[in-house]
Write a structure and sequence with these properties.
- The complex is a heterodimer of chains A (about 110) and B (about 110).
- With about 110 residues, chain A is mainly β.
- Helix content of chain A is about 0%, strand content about 55%.
- Chain A contains no helices and eleven strands.
- Chain A has strands spanning about 5, 10-15, 20-25, 30-35, 45-50, 55, 60-65, 70-75, 85-90, 100-105, 105-110.
- In chain A, strands 2, 4, 5, 9, 10 and 11 form a six-stranded mixed beta sheet that branches. Chain A has a five-stranded antiparallel beta sheet with strand order 1-3-8-7-6, with no helix packed on it.
- Chain A starts with a strand and ends with a strand.
- Chain B is mostly beta strands and about 110 residues long.
- Chain B has strands spanning about 5, 10-15, 20-25, 30-40, 40-50, 55, 65, 75-80, 85-95, 105, 110-114.
- In chain B, a hairpin with a 3-residue loop joins strand 4 (about 30-40) and strand 5.
- Chain B is globular, with a radius of gyration of 13 Å.
- Classes of the chains: A mainly beta (about 110), B mainly beta (about 110).
- The interface of A and B includes residues 33, 87 and 99 of A.
Chain lengths: ~110, ~110
Amino acid sequence: GQNIDQPTEMTATEGAIVQINCTYQTSGFNGLFWYQQHAGEAPTFLSYNVLDGLEEKGRFSSFLSRSKGYSYLLLKELQMKDSASYLCAVRGRNAGNNRKLIWGLGTSLAVNP
Amino acid sequence: NAGVTQTPKFQVLKTGQSMTLQCAQDMNHEYMSWYRQDPGMGLRLIHYSVGAGITDQGEVPNGYNVSRSTTEDFPLRLLSAAPSQTSVYFCASSYTSGTYNEQFFGPGTRLTVL
């Protein structure tokens, strides 16, 4: 079957660094996404990885290892506003125009002062 | 650009009532989809469309219908509401060609079925 695993909850301190892991087992692989979702709001796109390695975007970085079925999201210089749920999603087998994603349940991050 | 818009933001229905959740996007995206999000269940795909006139079922389609007569609009119809359909519903859209095609989400509709 297809499965994405993420830790349910994490806590961290303002100014620190936190790493949120995601492991996946899918039928084929055609890219991995990270989304941020604040409570009561819609998910918003953070990053995309399709090749192995690190993608950096300001305070946020995302890493992918396709051979290990593993990704992580790294958040640096944490701010209170980073308290949110972080969703990992994988696009599985390439099916032409089909843009379906397989979603993890999300990791709820609490940033404490 | 307004992006992805959804109406209504909140709705309360009685069991057995029907209603339509509206979704529109102004980014000329070919792909549109409906998700429901429930605590502990994550985002689950209800229906999706890869273009006008083309729709297909996701993982939880029972009790819902969709149509796609234009590129911009993708309404979701609840045929006979049930308490199990109490949820937050998100519409999302993206391009189908190109590299990563992130999905853009609407603000959501919070539905309660009594």
